[in-house]
């Protein structure tokens, strides 16, 4: 299977719904070919609309979408070289797993024997070889998802678009499927664009994570960079693991795992909650100035000098770990 | 366990009773009477096959059954093609719940009057000097009135289509509304155009609705006698009409024999439909 690669470029893409509501506000984004990109954000941030505009299932109000350098703005999905995996899979209930997978080839006029042979191969690729003749209703959620994945891949898309593919799975399956998505993406070498509201999913999968807020991109960068240097307070809060604080020096974000309870720290307050998490202990501190912050202490560190809720403590961190943020919310 | 079984029987009893009294008993009566002998004035309890021999030994009966089937088939094709697209329009083209409801109610407007009035309403429209002929003559399209418009098979089928298309629209519309819209998007994503989506996704998923609508229409047309009499002006016959005439002549056993024949035919048709389509998915 020859990897077909294509980069995806959005240029000032805007989605305006009837009534003038802006779902996506002039978004520009470059996704390199062969990369795994996650669109991340709370519900209503415009991530799904963005994905659907790339897929060609949503009309683009303004701006352009380029795939592999070709402007595909007005083209139907089939001419874009994309394939979409739908949330809750949208498998055809009257077709067997094999026929579902073969559907795209059937639409392209591939002869029955040939398309079923290829579909069989793709079912094997997602490890569903034995389930070919089952109807979607006879498959578990995880299996349905694999069928949906095979169905999307069979037309050899250059870009695979995934709309919250893991949200319907239980946590165990989700981790397993996550690994599998990443493996497939590496093996096939095609560009994946994946919409999710889970920051752990985005961190685990993406080469580029795009955090969206209110129809705009808040930050687009490799996940490590987002975690190390969140661009705004929103990003720092959404990505998790950060305290967003304002001290006389200005607003800044500091990772909770870099905070310690020190004799002479920067933020005095009272312990308001303690949560044991196994490898770490989360200590929430209600600071005297009204802010709330937390420290994620390695369990050994915590148990060397345990504190009780209500204890007066001082939260401290290395000045170098405080990442300054712009003042606006 | 025993108690709950008894309770289930009790719960099923009222409906079973209603069906027994109003369906099973009359049916059994018809079957019994179909073996009776009769004279010009009286029913003679007996067990003879003469009614069946007379009915099905006659070419007229077979022609009438054929004609009835032909009416049913033609009406089925017309109501299915009109009804499917009406349902399609309501379910997929119309945007907005409000518009959809209004249009749907509009479809039911003909049902606010009785069957008979709806049929009679065609007379001034289709008659020899009716609106249709006058309009066509007025436009210069024809110079003599079209005779086939009223009191003809054309008029019968037209009236059937008018009366029964809604019975096709409603169940098909119902199944269409249950189709997940994402399936249509998934089809489009896989490269399906309009006809492919229709043929490979919508049509197979509408089958239960089509099955139920077909049963309604075929049963109604097969048993009809008033429409055929009125719209054909007495020039066409159906099994229902034949039975009704025999009842008028007090030939109850003959009518019963024909009724049993009709019942068998309708049941065969139903069996064929149910074999082709699994309607339980819809119920």
Automatic annotation (TrEMBL), chain B:
<keyword id="KW-0812">Transmembrane</keyword>
<protein>
    <submittedName>
        <fullName>ABC transporter permease</fullName>
    </submittedName>
</protein>
<feature type="transmembrane region" description="Helical">
    <location>
        <begin position="154"/>
        <end position="173"/>
    </location>
</feature>
<keyword id="KW-1133">Transmembrane helix</keyword>
<dbReference type="InterPro" id="IPR035906">
    <property type="entry name" value="MetI-like_sf"/>
</dbReference>
<comment type="similarity">
    <text>Belongs to the binding-protein-dependent transport system permease family. CysTW subfamily.</text>
</comment>
<feature type="transmembrane region" description="Helical">
    <location>
        <begin position="102"/>
        <end position="123"/>
    </location>
</feature>
<feature type="transmembrane region" description="Helical">
    <location>
        <begin position="69"/>
        <end position="90"/>
    </location>
</feature>
<keyword id="KW-0472">Membrane</keyword>
<feature type="transmembrane region" description="Helical">
    <location>
        <begin position="12"/>
        <end position="36"/>
    </location>
</feature>
<dbReference type="InterPro" id="IPR000515">
    <property type="entry name" value="MetI-like"/>
</dbReference>
<feature type="transmembrane region" description="Helical">
    <location>
        <begin position="194"/>
        <end position="222"/>
    </location>
</feature>
<dbReference type="Pfam" id="PF00528">
    <property type="entry name" value="BPD_transp_1"/>
</dbReference>
<keyword id="KW-0813">Transport</keyword>
<keyword id="KW-1003">Cell membrane</keyword>
<feature type="transmembrane region" description="Helical">
    <location>
        <begin position="255"/>
        <end position="277"/>
    </location>
</feature>
<feature type="domain" description="ABC transmembrane type-1">
    <location>
        <begin position="65"/>
        <end position="275"/>
    </location>
</feature>
